[in-house]
Protein 1
Amino acid sequence: MKLKPWVKIFLFFILASIILFFGTKYFKKENAQIDKSLLDKYNISEKYASKTLEYVLKNNFYDEKYLEEYSKIEFNDNANFKEILTTFLPKGYKGEEINYLFKLSTNNLEKLKDKDYQDIHNYYQIKNFDVNALDRYNEYYNQNEYSYEDVVTYVNIKLDLPVYTDTVEVTDPDSILVLVNKYNSLPKNYSPSDLEYAKGAYGNNVPMRKIAYEALEELQKTVKKEANFELLPTTAYRDYNFQNTLYSNYVKSDGVASADTYSARPGYSEHQTGLAIDLKNPATSSNIRLTEENYNWLKNNAYRFGFIIRFPKDKEFITGYQEENWHIRYVGKDVAKTIYENNLSLEEYIDLYVTEY
Ligand SMILES: [Zn+2]
């Protein structure tokens, strides 16, 4: 289509005005408007004019020392705008750094108030960042080749500390999401109150929590139908004393260091939750739990029933356990799906999605 010259000129002008209109709007500094007499009163050069400066002057907390910094702080309508400026500028935070502080959680901000100046520029955008662990993050970052995001998660999980140190007894042993590992233990006398007994691979009765029992039944029916093999539990809930005997025997034969890589110390076993199940295909020989094919099915389908593979190969450094492709853990369908789709360990999931920092 050929346009007449006057149409071209007309279109050109329309386009030019649109660019001019939005362009100036975009580049216009919102701080240009400031009462000139206010600046004169404090003898401040116009080049420092900003919305933040205006606010500081009008609210009577202007301090000449921070003139340069005020111009770098983006004004916002946070209720604690004044408090943040008056608390953190005297601690030595620069204007740009003050901007970061508005992105922190209330918890982190409170913790930061009690500390001297901290350099947080590598961390403030990371959602599970904990101000109190800053020194450990920096040290772990220097010792490893991880991203800052991974460093934060791994340190929160305590991977920078030796196993079984700084341990905590969980306060929610009945929760479907309870995390039991080498840093988090169950109370010695905890046992679930809703145990059901499933038919086991060795003709035994295997106790587990009702919700896991029902999910297992669903999984068993489906695996039979879709992949034509059977999965039976060998063990699920184990009490503290049982684990104590088990672990002591392993230590006697292999020593503590070795036993710790494949067996949990009493109180630190996920089996005590009643939500963990060890599986076996009864058609395989006695020393093989699952064939590779069996495991592939389980790995890609367990989440549909609310289970996760708790100790996969690529998460050994996080879980602290050698791969156990037969050990599944009930966490509920939604959580299991997120963990499966994002290739997370339970430790990472809890830290990224549950714990509030
Ligand atoms: Zn197990």
Protein 2
Amino acid sequence: MTEDRSFDMPLEEAMRTQRSIRRLRADPVDHDLLLHCVELALKAPTGSNSQGWEFVLVEDRTSVGAIGRLNGFAWRLYGPVGRRQYRRNEQMQRILAAVQHQADNYDDIPALVVPCVRVPFSIPFVIGPVLGASALYGSVYPSIQNFLLACRAAGLGACLTTLPLWNVRRVRKILGLPRGLLPVAVIPVGWPEGRYGPTTRRPVKEVVHLDRFGNRPFL
Ligand SMILES: Cc1cc2nc3c(=O)[nH]c(=O)nc-3n(C[C@H](O)[C@H](O)[C@H](O)COP(=O)(O)O)c2cc1C
């Protein structure tokens, strides 16, 4: 098992192999290492350089367990639907098995990182809900991707999840978040049980359009 903390992995390698790691060892992760990953996350852009982000590192067993129960509740509803929907898709079946593993072993996850964004009072009213939502989530998700890449480079396993956020009020309460601070993801982090690997994605030439949607000369 690698515990490489050097962060000097080539960027392309990190991007090509960063994937959701849901099978984690229970061993704790150094605060310094997690802080380093968050520091790299903070190099991301935000609208007007607002930096209205906060990251809650959750290690308290009661809080991890409570968030795990929220995750488990949502998973018990979605899991059977997903299994039926993807019953002929082997790759999705593997992902769903990993989600099940994560749900079953949530209490052993050493740390959760919960990125939050401050909701500016002006957004929904002044610039409208659509632009507001883009600016709001767009001012925190780039940092989340940075965080995931930093974890990858450090050899840590991480997985962006939103299932526990079906009950934002409850998450707010568990973490003591003030009003106006919105949790946007829950990222279980730890040392991976397995290995990173290449991700499966649609081919680039299939998704790029030139000038107008549907014009795909690169295909
Ligand atoms: C917005 C968003 C929400 C997600 N929510 C969950 C989640 O609640 N639980 C989970 O296990 N994975 C979640 N994922 C991870 C995706 O399932 C995963 O990225 C996708 O299946 C591709 O797998 P890979 O990351 O291993 O390439 C989420 C990803 C995104 C971008």
